[in-house]
């Protein structure tokens, strides 16, 4: 089988983005564009992949990790010059090289595969992935001769009035015979409107050498969007989001309003989960069957168990059990674990806390750095006083304890199994199992004092 290589162009600064962040690192549905490109290419068996980096090289290398080799383009002199930087690694090898731009995040594995297949079947020297659009502004136009063969690509800025009318565009993706590519690149000049070495000029050079040049016209223009500015970035976000949401819906997930639901690529959702509008689900999150998420919730890196309901809430880096009720307006901060059948009601915040099975924090509480056992009831307004300004301290609340409303538990402290804390207590010492602890000022009633008070004479 023919050996296959890839070159990803990721050295451009992306001035049109008007951003400190390098273009190919801008996220689309939470993932840098260049990583989307790499993910799709990775699904194809490739013998070598070289990413061309320049601006922000270290950040791009960090983002992609060791899944490919890198070549540095010190000065961004154009896409043709960029590919030449891979010459040391690739130029003598036999096989097919796909060249892909790091700013076309929507092209799918299937399209890459189809391009490879047509190119190899036809024995072409070059095959351009093209697409047709009534709005080709900004793209290079594919110029064909009267026999409908591809002759060359003309950049928007170099095109004459007639060429500007052409609706077939260069997607910036090509398959080449590897050695023909590197030899033709030697002949590319920078005599054009932008003073750059254009990769698409290789097409005309190869034709001049009587080599076969072909095009693969994809019907999916949507996939080929090149992201040069923030307007295109928002379009890419929309298309990618829709693609991900449709995948989940086909797998049996109910998404009430797909236009207002944002699910990042690695999220796993089982069938019969319902996602309400305004929900963002990020990172490595798993949601088990029959759960209901949203409206207006943000979940990041969480495991959410079967039948759990999360309404108008935020949860990060935590594990939530089965049949748990969360919200409205709860905040689950990192490193928390919530047991089955637990409840976290409105305006409760937990952090680095494990909450046992069947335990309830129904309203207005802050529980941080705490180990809470099973079937504990934490009353409204309870606070674990975990921080002295320097260090954090642990609160332990054992099984079946009952914490009355508006209590301060000053950590480190342990509330024993089955014990009661009276409402309004400030607990500074451990409470033994099965005890009732009352830690509040004693009430004094002054009989008849109210009337006396009201009848005071004015001065
Ligand atoms: C390019 C094509 C155009 C095509 C379009 C598709 C050229 C000359 N033009 O135009 O025909 O329609 O893509 O989206 O190729 N890059 C480098 N080094 C450089 C210059 C660019 O690595 O010196 C990288 C960029 O990071 C980017 C990619 O190459 O990922 C494409 O460059 P860009 O400047 O966006 O080219 P376009 O003007 O979009
Ligand atoms: Ca581009």
From TrEMBL:
Keyword terms: Acyltransferase, Cell shape, Cell wall biogenesis/degradation, Cytoplasm, Magnesium, Metal-binding, Multifunctional enzyme, Nucleotidyltransferase, Peptidoglycan synthesis, Repeat, Transferase
GO biological process entries: cell morphogenesis; cell wall organization; lipid A biosynthetic process; peptidoglycan biosynthetic process; regulation of cell shape; UDP-N-acetylglucosamine biosynthetic process
Assembly description: Homotrimer.
Residue span of region N-acetyltransferase: 252-459
Keyword Metal-binding in record: yes
UniProt-annotated location(s): Cytoplasm
Protein name stated in the entry: Bifunctional protein GlmU
Cofactor note: Binds 1 Mg(2+) ion per subunit.
Signal peptide bounds: none
Family: In the N-terminal section; belongs to the N-acetylglucosamine-1-phosphate uridyltransferase family. In the C-terminal section; belongs to the transferase hexapeptide repeat family.
Metabolic or biological pathway, per its Swiss-Prot or TrEMBL entry: Bacterial outer membrane biogenesis; LPS lipid A biosynthesis; Nucleotide-sugar biosynthesis; UDP-N-acetyl-alpha-D-glucosamine biosynthesis; N-acetyl-alpha-D-glucosamine 1-phosphate from alpha-D-glucosamine 6-phosphate (route II): step 2/2; Nucleotide-sugar biosynthesis; UDP-N-acetyl-alpha-D-glucosamine biosynthesis; UDP-N-acetyl-alpha-D-glucosamine from N-acetyl-alpha-D-glucosamine 1-phosphate: step 1/1
Chain's role: Catalyzes the last two sequential reactions in the de novo biosynthetic pathway for UDP-N-acetylglucosamine (UDP-GlcNAc). The C-terminal domain catalyzes the transfer of acetyl group from acetyl coenzyme A to glucosamine-1-phosphate (GlcN-1-P) to produce N-acetylglucosamine-1-phosphate (GlcNAc-1-P), which is converted into UDP-GlcNAc by the transfer of uridine 5-monophosphate (from uridine 5-triphosphate), a reaction catalyzed by the N-terminal domain.
Annotated Mg(2+) binding sites: 103, 228
Natural source organism: Oceanobacillus zhaokaii
Chain intervals for the UniProt region annotation (Pyrophosphorylase): 1-230
Main location: cytoplasm
């Amino acid at each position: 089988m023919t050996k296959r290589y890839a070159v990803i162009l990721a050295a451009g600064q992306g001035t049109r983005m008007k951003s400190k962040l390098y273009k190919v690192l801008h996220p689309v549905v939470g993932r840098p564009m260049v990583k989307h490109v790499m993910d799709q290419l990775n699904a194809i068996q490739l013998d070598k992949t070289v990413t061309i980096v320049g601006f922000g090289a270290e950040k791009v290398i960090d983002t992609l990790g060791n899944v490919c080799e890198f070549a540095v383009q010190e000065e961004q002199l154009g896409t043709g010059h960029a590919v030449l930087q891979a010459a040391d690694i690739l130029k003598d090898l036999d096989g097919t090289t796909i060249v892909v731009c790091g700013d076309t995040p929507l092209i799918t594995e299937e399209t890459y595969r189809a391009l490879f297949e047509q190119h190899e079947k036809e024995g072409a020297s070059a095959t351009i992935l093209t697409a047709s659009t009534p709005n080709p502004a900004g793209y290079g136009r594919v110029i064909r001769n009267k026999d409908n063969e591809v002759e060359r690509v003309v950049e928007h800025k170099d095109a004459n009035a007639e060429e500007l009318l052409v609706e077939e565009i260069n997607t910036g993706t090509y398959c080449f015979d590897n050695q023909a590519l590197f030899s033709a690149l030697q002949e590319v000049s920078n005599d054009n409107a932008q003073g750059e070495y254009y990769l698409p000029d290789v097409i005309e050079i190869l034709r001049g050498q009587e080599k076969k040049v072909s095009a693969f016209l994809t019907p999916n223009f949507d996939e080929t969007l090149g992201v040069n500015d923030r307007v295109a970035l928002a379009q890419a976000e929309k298309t990618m989001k829709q693609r991900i949401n449709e995948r989940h819906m086909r797998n049996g997930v109910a998404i009430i309003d797909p236009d207002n639901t944002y699910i990042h690529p690695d999220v796993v959702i089982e069938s019969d989960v319902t996602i309400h509008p305004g929900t963002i689900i990020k990172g490595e999150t798993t949601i088990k069957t029959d759960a209901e998420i949203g409206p207006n919730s943000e979940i990041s890196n969480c495991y959410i168990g079967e039948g759990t309901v999360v309404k108008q809430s935020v949860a990060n880096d935590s594990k939530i059990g089965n049949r748990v009720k969360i919200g409205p307006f709860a905040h689950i901060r990192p490193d928390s674990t919530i047991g089955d059948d637990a409840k976290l009601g409105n305006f409760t915040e937990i952090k680095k806390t494990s909450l046992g099975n069947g335990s309830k924090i129904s309203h207005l509480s802050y529980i941080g750095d705490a180990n809470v056992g099973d079937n504990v009831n934490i009353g409204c307004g309870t606070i674990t006083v975990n921080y002295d300004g320097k260090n954090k301290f642990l609160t332990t609340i054992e099984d079946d304890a009952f914490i009355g409303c508006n209590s301060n538990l000053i950590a480190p402290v342990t509330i024993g199994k089955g014990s009661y804390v009276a409402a309004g207590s400030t607990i500074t010492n451990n409470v033994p199992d099965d005890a009732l602890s009352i830690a509040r000022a004693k009430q004094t009633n002054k009989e008849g004092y109210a009337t006396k008070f009201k009848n005071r004479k004015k001065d």
